[in-house]
Amino acid sequence: MNNKTKHTYIFFVQGEGRGHITQAMTLYNLLLTQGHVIQAVIVTVSKNRKVPDFFLNYLKVPVYTVQGPNFITDNNVKSINWLKTIAINIFKFPTHINQFKAIKSIVNQYKPEIIINFYDLLCGIYLRIHNKQKAIAIAHQYTYLHPSFKFPKGFIINRLLIKLYTKLTAGNSIKKLAISFYEIKNNQPNLIVIPPVIRKEVLELKSEFKDIILIYLVNPGYFDEIVKWHINNPSVHLHCFTDSKTYLSNNFKFNTNTLKLHDLCNESFLKYMSISKAVATTAGFESVCEAMYLGKPLLMVPVKRHFEQFCNSRDANSIGAGLYSDHFDLNLLIDFSTNFNPSNLTFKNWVNAGYDIIQKELLFP
Predict the structure, then answer these.
(1) What's this model's pTM, rounded to 2 decimal places?
(2) Nearest to 293 by CA among 268, 266, 270, 313
(3) 56 — alpha (psi -120 to 50), left (phi > 0) or beta?
(4) Pairing of strands 63-67, 114-118
(5) Which tens digit of pLDDT belongs to each residue from 247-259?
């Protein structure tokens, strides 16, 4: 990156899961090492989510939270209830509108040269209202706007809706950086395909294969499936990570010698990811990428009616990363891991090229 030109930034981060948060951490560190200034970070959360402590501790700048639209799950916290999601977010629309006052106040306070938006809808709308602000949008979901991206067959309405939502998040961004599992040729004007934005802490890990399975659950309702499987397979060591307040406050009910429940602590998560023999996850993009880079076989269980995770699971499966299923049947994962080849040089080479590509695309005149 051109060291003669320094910029000031504000990050907007969609706070659902780990993906956008860890991508923001990576770019935060990358920009700082090049002498740029990140003035503040704004995270959109719902009342059921909290900003992970590891993220707050990593950043040495003010972090602001605003309330934004989010998915509403069923009573079992295993599936998206689209009727409730639409109804409640419409009901809360005046509250969301009020958030723009807070956003405008923060932006006016710092007056950044550039906003980087990690797939945040409120930011996208804000950028359309204040269309003179320079911005870059970065997320895996922008691959959906590329004509060469292949969706799963069918799901026409889902495709239209997720493309519409994705365009709304981008606002009037000068560039959309689309993070992909693999290289896609023929970049479009202002839509550039880039490698996964994986933290250097992950790239530097030594991968081992001990008798441990790592489990990551965004929607904690699936934990009941893990417990049932554990009862029938008590000798298999499971380490399950979630940000569910309910389960974490009652973890004494679940923890045994071979089943451990963890909060989303960054160091612990990476530790168990690096030494696990396999990974089971709800098909979030970032966790899938980290597992692939470390050569871990995957079981991907998309949250029901979560089309983005559905696409992730099929996309990763198409390049041999792992299996997808409707349930956390860890027997499938154990069987798959028996003959799994952990070497994936094509993916690793693509990821390793990422920092140079990202630095180039963050340049502004």
Answers:
(1) 0.87
(2) 270
(3) alpha
(4) unpaired
(5) 556 554 566 789 9
